[in-house]
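Q: C-alpha cells for this one, please.
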Amino acid sequence: MKIATFNVNGVNGRLPVLLRWLGESAPDIVCLQELKAPQERFPLTAIRDAGYGAIWHGQKSWNGVAILARGTDPVERRRSLPGDPEDSHSRYIEAMVGDIVVGCLYLPNGNPAPGPKFDYKLRWFDRLTKHAKKLFAAKEPVVLAGDYNVMPTDLDVYKPERWRDDALFRPEVRSAYAKLIRQGWTDALRELHPDEKIYTFWDYFRNAYARDAGLRIDHLLLNAPLAARLKAAQVDRDVRGWEKASDHAPTWIELADKKRAARKRVVKR
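A: Here is the predicted structure, written as C-alpha cells:
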C-alpha cells in the first residue's frame, strides 16, 4: 500500500499536474492540502474519473484539505480539530480508508513571528497534539499526513542560519513537533533516511528548485501498528519541476501488508 501527501497549492489551477501524478504514481491513499477552493468547486468528477473516491473540506481562496482513496470512498470521521469551535479554517479532515485512520492536516504557517498568526499556529499545534494522543492510543493503524509547516531539525532546511526567526523554524515550533513525536509517532521519511538531505518544498523565488534550496515540511507520522509495516518513504522530487507545478512535491510511504509485517515481528523475536 502506498500513502502520499501533496500540498497542491490550488487544486483546480494545478489539476493537470495532480491528475498526471495520480496516473503515474498510483497511490492508494492521498492527503491533499491548500485546495484554495470552496466546497462546491472541488473537482470531484475529474478525481473520480482518475479512479479515486474523495472527501474534502474546502474554503474560498485559501486552506482546504482532502483525502482521496483509490477505488473506494473514504469514510469521514471528522472535519476539524477539537478544542476550538470558533476556528473557521479548513485545515483538518479525518477518515477511515479500509482499516487505516487517515488524518490529513495543513498546519498554519504562522508568519510573521512573533504575532497573532504565530500564536494561532502554536494553539493549533497544541490542539493537534492533544487529538493525536488519543489517536495514537487507538488500536487501529493511524497516519497523520500533511503540510506541517515545520522543519524539525537543521538537516531539514538548506540554510538553517537564515531561518532561525521564521515561524517554520523557531524553537517553539520545533519543540511542539518534538513533543508530538515523543508520543511515539514515527516520522516515516526521517526513519528511513536518518542522515539524508531531503526536501519536500522549494520556493518559486530565487531559482530555489534548480539550486535545491529546499525545506522538509511535509511529513507522514505513523503510530506503532503502521510503523511496523513501513517499507519505503520518498519524495517525488521531479514533480516539482513539471510545468505549472506546486511549490511542494508529493511525499509518500509504502507499507507491507499486515501478514508480512506480522511475520517480520515473529522472526525478530
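A few notes: The two ends are 25 Å apart (CA to CA). The CA atoms of residues 15 and 210 lie 23 Å apart.
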